[in-house]
């Protein structure tokens, strides 16, 4: 059976911007926010997250960094294995490129909400390793 690609339902935020601005503001489709972005979080929380999300400039998703910090700074990555926005394989590949310490958890894109203990442990591990 062929699986459909997992695509985040990002849509224009519908905010008025001056004509001189070329960047678009985007947001995640609120009707699909829970399943797409925070599937492992009880429904009330993603409902609030969807309703209060701020727009993001499309450039934030496409613009590169001038000097990648990971080249000089040790990195840790908490991979969300059930992320429907950034596939785990992509997260692991990018972490490998940065020679990062990788920890994988079964969580959605919002793992800071659904797995705060795992996030805190990884931060603590990074602090202890670099001090």
How would you describe this structure to a colleague?
The protein is an alpha+beta fold and 131 residues long. The strands form 2 sheets. It has a 3-stranded antiparallel β-sheet. Strand 4 (76-80), helix 4 and strand 5 (101-105) form a beta-alpha-beta unit. Helix content is 36%, strand content 15%. The chain has 6 helices and 5 strands. The radius of gyration is 17 Å and the shape is globular. The model is unreliable at 1-7 (pLDDT under 50). The N and C termini lie far apart (50 Å).
Number of helices: 6
The major sheet is characterized as: 3 strands, antiparallel
Give the helix/strand class.
Answer: alpha+beta
Write the element-wise H/E pattern from the N-terminal end onward.
EEHHEHEHEHH
Order the strands across the largest sheet as they lie in space.
Answer: 1-2-3
- Helix content range: 25-40%
Shape annotation: globular
Uncertain runs with pLDDT below 50, 5 residues or more? Answer: 1-7
Rounded to the nearest angstrom, the radius of gyration is: 17 Å
Number of domains: 2
- Average of the residue pLDDT scores: 85
